[in-house]
């Protein structure tokens, strides 16, 4: 019962604190909100330190000694509550174990299915190398990573790449980012990632072959932060120091570019940025487009210079990079920094919060889906360590180590992967700048007696700030540098130091835990943890032996490392899990031996540097023993120091950038399709005539299939007056002729194409170029004849409202639907509307794009006056699974049956409404099919990348390329024809298809018509997070019209939005 004495003591302490336990709003669960409460500390100690049986015994004891006294009654009640809390923690752990087991079975089943589809067996010798061919360590790594400090290596690299002029875009949107005086540690969003992206941009800007680097982040004009975060542009570097200004160019170098999005006058945390992602994407797209044109004038011979890659950092920037990559058709890279699934697992294991509470606090489900999208869209995923690949990315639906290796080997053998893709995982350790590191004589041998006063250089001020804490500042310093966060495990370090008397007698302990003014003003979690550390210092009476300064500048950090090295100290990183451990690199570069956690990146760092010891972060005695061993054994200390300094340049920024650029060069070049077709400098594989002809034949076949299928339509569809077989055959033949006419143009020589683009293509759609305002009608109300009538009625009202405007010619119209082009045409005909009233049609949920035209020579038939955009078709083809995806979907569809209806199939392939980039399925009973979240998961596990959505009130399933959507089609039109996104108004109903939320955000204005639209059953659109995590209408320009609206109300709304004049 000794354990129960401790429990009873903690419970008595809780009562002494006097926390109002009866407050219904309070909770014994530890949360990251509110101010620090000692009650939480004691409850945490009880729950994590004692068995459920002991808690139950304490409750029995309290209840048996009941008395009229209020204190005993409260004690009994509190025992019961804490006991139940412990039981809840155990229940959560059990549920999580079941989830993990289910996940393993799903992954194994998906892997088996994928392997079964890929029929060719691989021999033992063909199974490929390790996960990443640059992720080995030890001698192998050193042999492949020569010291980049070598002048010969740098000069060779420069001579090979100096003629290249690359444009690279990096994205990191949360936290406070600037080039000088970074406020690292100010909050949880402004940490190592900020330092990493700024230094990466700066280093890339100095590399040969790189002309410009843009680091895109959020512009913050708020009184809460410094004015510098509101500056639109900040220069980081002008390029290589030895490069002349003429070679650099007017726009060369590295820059921080701040894009305004979200609340303009408020600094908000990364968890609150999710609803504004699309607004950032539109702003970034405008910047990149304008910059590409500027660079084209300077270095591109008049042709736009598009980014060679877009690199997203963290989930929010990765989500943005995926959309930008899809809009621009350029390669995407991604670095996670920390991953949502790994964080979720750690939080669930702690048992302090349920999954629902975790999601509410961290928006973790939204973050995980963004990371899954990054796996779908990325060419390369850059990691710091091998552990991150196997143990963290391995948790995701979209990545499987075994399947990735299989696919990679098949690609090397030029064997079909049946539409399956995996991103390339590449280990590139973060770099560091070593130019400012200077080795002082006193660092190793110590300064001679009496030489201090004669020193010409005064000690840095930060030294005094640290040494004033110590009784004996000359003792070796054990240095830890981390923010006060439980996962950094500083409490275990303090306990290890406090309970090891030889270590206390031999060394001092310095804790650099960010910057603070007042503990009460810190975030609740950081304040609580810091208070716990201070209590431990008091408990072990470590005054005079532990330093914990309140302030330090980023420029002080190298001096802190140097002070520790001067005292022959040791640097320690005791975190429970460390994704990489950049501080270990920094410490090693300053001559400090290291003690580090054995979980995560430090393992790889230790293999390369061999300059310290690895420890189990949970073993307090092991930490103390490792520190004592390094401090006490001077020979071992000197050996570790020399090893670290000898190999540290393997982690330099030039080395990092060299590998980084080599990886970018390995990606297949991609750029906007019309730019690729116009580019005469090189003939890429994707631009060859053979590929173009193959695409045209595929499109022709699918167009024929779609039109022929209309013959078998059910009577419930809209009757457009083209029912006769003769008319259908005529239209089909003429549409085929249209496609073949376009094919002839694409098969011309490059000069002919260029001439056609100038004299023909640019004049085919003059209306789109001269439209000053664009109205996009994206109403989803065609689930029935009644819904179609509503759509036609609203279109007429919109036209009538626009015709009242004197400048009608300056207003263009785009119809965006889930219908096929043929269905759309029949719908317009049935309502007496002309197709030429619209400038463009986004069909099949964003998988096809058409233009109306009166020129019969262009379209081939006056009865079907549309031009199909082949460029857009090629634009969205990235990672499209094609026939392999279709077969998997058909097999899945046959498994959805109604057991109560003679095993009737509930999902049926709809070949009539399918096309090259849209597989359509009829859903007979929506209640029996999975949500888009579950269906995407099923496909991702099998290596298939796509965008799934339900339309027609849930009665139709569309499967599109991963980056194809109606909102992405609008971005394509902006890029292709120069239509300003800010001059667009997207008109939507109150509800719509499962892609409805994607139409609301971003720069375009929104007009919402209440009472219009057919909703999809809520369970089908379930993504695991709410619509408020996707889009925010609070700060965007939007107007809502109540039910019963007409043309006058629509006109009034358009006047309010600035489209029409009052």
UniProtKB/TrEMBL annotation:
Keywords: Glycosyltransferase, Transferase. GO terms for molecular function: sucrose-phosphate synthase activity. Residues 773-993 form the Sucrose phosphatase-like domain. It catalyses: beta-D-fructose 6-phosphate + UDP-alpha-D-glucose = sucrose 6(F)-phosphate + UDP + H(+). GO terms for biological process: sucrose biosynthetic process. Its EC number is 2.4.1.14. Residues 472-645 form the Glycosyl transferase family domain. Residues 94-140, 671-694 are annotated as: Disordered. Residues 94-115 have a biased composition (Basic and acidic residues). Residues 166-433 form the Sucrose synthase first GT-B domain. Coiled coil: none annotated. Plays a role in photosynthetic sucrose synthesis by catalyzing the rate-limiting step of sucrose biosynthesis from UDP-glucose and fructose- 6-phosphate. Involved in the regulation of carbon partitioning in the leaves of plants. May regulate the synthesis of sucrose and therefore play a major role as a limiting factor in the export of photoassimilates out of the leaf. Plays a role for sucrose availability that is essential for plant growth and fiber elongation. NCBIfam families: sucrsPsyn_pln (TIGR02468). Belongs to the glycosyltransferase 1 family. This is Sucrose-phosphate synthase.
């Amino acid at each position: 019962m000794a354990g129960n004495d401790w429990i009873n003591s903690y419970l008595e302490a809780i009562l002494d604190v006097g926390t109002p336990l009866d407050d219904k709003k309070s909770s014994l669960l530890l949360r990251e909100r509110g101010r620090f409460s000692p009650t939480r500390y004691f409850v945490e100690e009880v729950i994590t330190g004692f068995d459920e049986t002991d808690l139950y015994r304490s409750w029995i004891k309290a209840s048996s000694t009941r008395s009229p006294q209020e204190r005993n009654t409260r004690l009994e009640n509190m025992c019961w509550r804490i006991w139940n809390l412990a039981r809840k923690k155990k229940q959560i752990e059990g549920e999580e174990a079941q989830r993990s087991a289910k996940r393993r079975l799903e992954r194994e089943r998906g892997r088996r299915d994928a392997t079964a589809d890929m029929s060719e067996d691989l021999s033992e010798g063909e199974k490929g190398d390790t996960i990443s061919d640059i992720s080995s360590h030890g001698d192998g790594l050193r042999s492949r990573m020569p010291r980049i400090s070598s002048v010969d290596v740098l000069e060779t690299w420069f001579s090979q790449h100096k003629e290249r002029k690359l444009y690279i875009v990096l994205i990191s949107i949360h936290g406070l980012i600037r080039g000088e005086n970074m406020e690292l540690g100010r909050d949880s969003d402004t940490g190592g990632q900020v330092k990493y992206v700024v230094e990466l941009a700066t280093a890339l800007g100095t590399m040969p072959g790189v002309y410009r680097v843009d680091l895109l982040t959020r512009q913050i004009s708020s009184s809460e932060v410094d004015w510098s975060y509101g500056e639109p542009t900040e220069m980081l570097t002008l390029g290589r120091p030895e490069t002349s200004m003429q070679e650099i160019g007017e726009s060369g170098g590295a820059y921080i570019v701040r894009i305004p999005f979200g609340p303009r006058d408020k600094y908000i945390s990364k968890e609150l940025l999710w609803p504004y992602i699309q607004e950032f994407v539109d702003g970034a797209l405008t910047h990149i487009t304008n910059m590409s044109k500027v660079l084209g004038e300077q270095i591109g011979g008049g042709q736009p210079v598009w980014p060679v890659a877009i690199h997203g950092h963290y989930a929010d920037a990765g989500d943005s990079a995926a959309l930008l990559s899809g809009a621009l058709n350029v390669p995407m890279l991604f670095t996670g920094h920390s991953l949502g699934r790994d964080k979720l697992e750690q939080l669930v294991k702690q048992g302090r919060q349920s999954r629902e509470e975790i999601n509410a606090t961290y928006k973790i489900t939204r973050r995980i889906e963004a990371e899954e999208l990054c796996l779908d869209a990325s060419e390369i995923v850059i990691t710091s360590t091998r552990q991150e690949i196997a143990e963290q990315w391995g948790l995701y639906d979209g990545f499987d180590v075994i399947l990735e290796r299989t696919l990679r080997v098949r690609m090397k053998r030029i064997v079909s992967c049946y539409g399956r893709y995996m991103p390339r995982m590449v280990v590139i350790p973060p770099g560091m700048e070593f130019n400012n590191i200077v080795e002082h004589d006193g660092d190793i041998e110590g300064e001679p007696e009496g030489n201090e006063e004669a020193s010409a250089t005064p000690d840095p001020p930060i030294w005094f700030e640290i040494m004033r804490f110590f009784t004996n500042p000359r003792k070796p310093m054990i240095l830890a540098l981390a923010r006060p966060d439980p996962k950094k495990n500083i409490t275990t370090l303090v306990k290890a130091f406090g309970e090891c008397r030889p270590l206390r007698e031999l060394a001092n302990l310095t804790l650099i835990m960010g910057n603070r003014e007042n503990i009460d003003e810190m975030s609740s979690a950081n304040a609580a943890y810091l208070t716990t550390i201070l209590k431990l210092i008091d408990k072990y009476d470590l005054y005079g032996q532990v330093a914990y300064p309140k302030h330090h500048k980023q420029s002080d950090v190298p001096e802190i490392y140097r002070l520790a090295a001067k005292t022959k100290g040791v640097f320690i990183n005791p975190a429970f899990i460390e994704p990489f451990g950049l501080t270990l690199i920094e410490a090693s570069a300053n001559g400090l031996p290291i003690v580090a956690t054995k979980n995560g990146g430090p393992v790889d760092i230790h293999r390369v540097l061999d300059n310290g010891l690895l420890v189990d972060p949970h073993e307090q005695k092991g930490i103390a023993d490792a520190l004592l061993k390094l401090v006490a054994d001077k020979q071992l200390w000197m050996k570790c120091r020399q090893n670290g300094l000898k190999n540290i340049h393997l982690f330099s920024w030039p080395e990092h950038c060299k590998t980084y650029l080599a990886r970018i060069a390995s990606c297949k070049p991609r750029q906007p399709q019309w730019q690729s077709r116009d580019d005469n400098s090189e003939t890429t594989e994707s631009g060859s005539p053979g590929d173009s002809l193959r695409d045209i034949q595929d499109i022709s076949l699918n167009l024929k299939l779609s039109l022929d299928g209309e013959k078998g339509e059910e009577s419930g569809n809209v009757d457009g007056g083209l029912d006769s077989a003769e008319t259908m055959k005529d239209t089909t033949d003429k549409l085929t002729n249209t496609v073949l006419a376009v094919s002839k143009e694409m098969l011309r020589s490059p000069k002919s194409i260029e001439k056609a683009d100038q004299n023909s293509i640019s004049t085919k759609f003059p209306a789109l170029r001269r439209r000053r305002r664009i109205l996009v009608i994206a109403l989803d109300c065609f689930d029935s004849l009644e819904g179609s009538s509503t759509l036609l009625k609203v279109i007429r009202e919109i036209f009538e409202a626009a015709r009242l405007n004197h400048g009608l010619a300056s207003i263009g119209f785009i119809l965006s639907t889930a219908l096929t082009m043929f269905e759309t045409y029949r719908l317009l005909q049935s309502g007496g509307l002309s197709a030429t009233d619209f400038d463009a049609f986004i069909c099949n949920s964003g998988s096809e794009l058409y233009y109306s035209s009166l020129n019969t020579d262009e379209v081939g038939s006056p009865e079907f006056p549309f031009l199909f955009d082949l460029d857009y078709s090629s634009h969205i083809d990235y990672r499209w699974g094609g026939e392999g995806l279709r077969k998997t979907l058909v097999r899945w569809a046959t498994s959805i049956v109604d057991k109560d209806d003679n095993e009737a199939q509930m999902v049926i392939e709809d070949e009539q409404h399918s096309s090259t980039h849209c597989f359509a399925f009829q859903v007979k009973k929506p209640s029996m099919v999975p949500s888009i979240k579950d269906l995407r998961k099923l496909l991702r596990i099998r290596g298939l990348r796509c965008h799934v959505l339900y339309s027609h009130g849930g009665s139709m399933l569309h499967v599109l390329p991963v980056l194809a959507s109606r909102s992405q089609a609008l971005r394509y039109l902006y890029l292709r024809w120069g239509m300003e996104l800010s001059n667009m108004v997207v008109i939507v109903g109150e509800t719509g298809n499962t892609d409805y939320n994607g139409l609301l955000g971003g720069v375009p204005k929104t007009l919402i018509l209440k009472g219009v639209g057919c909703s999809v059953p809520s369970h089908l659109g379930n993504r695991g997070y709410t619509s408020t995590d996707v889009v925010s209408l609070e700060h965007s320009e939007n107007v809502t019209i109540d039910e019963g609206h007409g043309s006058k109300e629509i006109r009034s709304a358009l006047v309010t939005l600035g489209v029409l004049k009052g």
